[in-house]
Q: What sequence folds into this?
């Protein structure tokens, strides 16, 4: 993800937050739910647990806010 362009980051992070675990998740025998997420890089896929998804969504939102602040400061 380090090589993402900013516009790709915005697109990926927003689509990440829109994942509906009730619809898209798989479940293990132990009852844990997860999703497999493809990225714009064909060789990179993520397996994300539900609790990780919630935390990453919060962090993506924070990062987008900080990028907006940076743009404002840079004029």
A:
């Amino acid at each position: 993800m380090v090589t993402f362009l900013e516009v790709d980051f915005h697109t990926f992070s927003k689509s990440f937050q829109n994942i509906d675990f009730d619809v898209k998740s798989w479940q293990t025998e132990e009852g844990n739910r997860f999703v497999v997420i493809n990225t714009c890089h064909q060789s990179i896929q993520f397996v994300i647990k539900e609790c990780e998804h919630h935390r990453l969504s919060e962090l993506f939102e924070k990062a987008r806010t900080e990028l907006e602040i940076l743009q404002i400061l840079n004029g």
